[in-house]
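Annotated sample (chain length 235).
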Amino acid sequence: MEFKPISVIAGKEFWDRIRNRWVLAVAVIFTVFALVIAYFGAAQQGAVGFRGMDVTIASLVSLVIYLVPLIALILGYDAIVGERERGSLELLLSLPITRFELLIGKFLGLAGALSFSTLAGFGLAGVLLSYQLGATALYHYAGFMLSALLLGMAFLSIAILVSVMASDRMRASGVAIGLWFFLVLVYDLLLLGLLVLAEKRFSLSFFPVLLYLNPADIFRILNVFGFKAVSYTHL
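Output written by the structure step:
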């Protein structure tokens, strides 16, 4: 495996997404939503204004679970099948590059674009909020951004797998949206139903394993329960 062809493919993918400007639009959306949630996340309880990092992160978790996986799947679903339909895949493979190098280059380029939008969006919001945050809160917010990025990488990997296996872009987009719907919206409902049905009938020791099979649930556990655990240790 050679690094040069991988870097060329990755660079092309990254700058293609930047030139489309949708990556910048996503970064702006993340910034706006993060600031709005930080100041109005507790409005239902009659409180307006920054209420602390634990409240902000808990509110942002729901936003990230819905948006970041969807953006990652949309970003990567046509990475390979799109090239195949345009007839450019055979041209790329005729160059001195292996299929694996092409795949890695595609992933790294798209991951770079997704990382830019995620870190720039939430990072700018963090900078604007930093004057109200202590060192511990900034540490938690940095952990939140990193976990959001890892969530995006997980779903981007799924998207590229779909793109490799799909026969056309239409099927790839349908499978990608279906996976988002299942993993983000349906999966937890199925686990809840299983939990109710299995109660007092057999051991639930396998239940955490089922949670860990879904990247969205891992993200939620890290930021909701993990944050509380760390907070309690500082009391």
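Annotation: The chain has one domain: 3-177.
Annotation: The CA atoms of residues 147 and 185 lie 19 Å apart.
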